Fold:
Amino acid sequence: MHDSYDIVVIGAGPAGENVADYALRGSSRTALLIENELVGGECSYYACMPSKALLRPVEVRATAENLQGLPDQVELDPVALLRRRDAWVAGYRDAGQVEWANTAGIDVARGRGRISGPRRVDITSDTGTISVEARHAVVVATGSTPVIPDFLQGLEPWTSRDATGVIEIPESIAVIGGGVVAVEAAHWLAALGSQVTLLVREQRVLTRLEPFAGDFVVDGLRHAGVEVVFDAVISAAQRPTATASGLGRVHGGPVQVTVAGRAREFAEVLAATGRKPASDDIGLAAVGLTPATFADPSVRPAWLYAVGDVSGEAPLTHWGKYRARLIGEQIAARAEGRELPAAPSEVPVPQVVFSDPQVAAVGMTEEAARRAGITTLCPKVPMSSAAGYALLRDDAPGQAQLVIDADTGRLLGATFVGTEVAELVHAATVAIVGGLTISQLWHAVPSYPTSSEVWLRLLDTCR
Structure:
């Protein structure tokens, strides 16, 4: 530890790690990462990595059960599945991440970082508080925190951390929400043996994606034994046999959830109802900011940056890492008096939902394009129209759709739903970033037999 660094980063998740790394590369500059929990952040230990570690064996089992020549029933070993999860989160130890940071020339400080003045950050830990100065930049990369509905306040509901870190499988669980966390958790909890009820306030899941994507996901959930309830108006919840704590909270015992006037009892409840930027306790008042004004980059002082979920941008790890790389390069350019590196004014945000079937999407939906006043072509075909895809599973569910500007022929968006479609979306991302038209895409030849041939089927409908 030193009393000053070129760059001080509050939060050592993927966004914080990347911004520090890119701000230092090829230079003698110094950087400090401040982390109050585990270096590597939410994604590494409580979200992306454990989620996918749990979901992949479930996906493989579903594929195996839908391939002739393999057993009709493939047993899942819950103990082994959780052991796999533990291996991927390194037993909730971050020594490897700290070693990477040190190898990259980045110091790590344990404690809670708060801005205490212009270019100054206080670090509070069990041993007291110290202050460090940033010569060039302070970067806030504190991520986000779960939003708990009012009716669950004080009941100690599960959040995504409890779901990915599950040890004892609840006999039954109510998953409240219809987003990515809700549908993914519902899949692996059901596979582990829990009776899962998904309570969705809206009339469909994954509301920011194409409607057909949510329809396929719901079919998959129901096939896996998940009860899906739409228009779920929840008026109250309680733990009747719980033990009260001194903090006005209760823990232990089943949960009664009142849905549409009917009380239903579950062994546990998971609040998958969204997240909010973690900007409430980072010392913004010391530099005349509030969480609202901090979210506006035009209001923040030039030395202060926000990256990742806390920035209010797309709360996706890959997006946070992309933005961190750009900001790290900007900090480096300013420190060296160079021109700032150029970046496109608009970059599409890809997303994958690792449900069964998977959903992979990027760019505009058909509805978003319509709201923007764009005349579109939206070809849609079954994924099974590509022979290579149909070979993956005998049931081969899925659908693909493009959103094309009818006037220019440029690709605006794409959605793929089906088995292993996560690997298809990057081609669409490249095409959108490159401004490619359907005439140009016609000459991008996919190999046979692969799922990528679905591109030909989509483009065929436009000729």
Observations:
- The chain has 15 helices and 24 strands.
- The chain has three domains: 4-40+94-145+277-336, 148-273, 357-460.
- The longest strand covers residues 128-140.
- The CA atoms of residues 393 and 462 lie 28 Å apart.
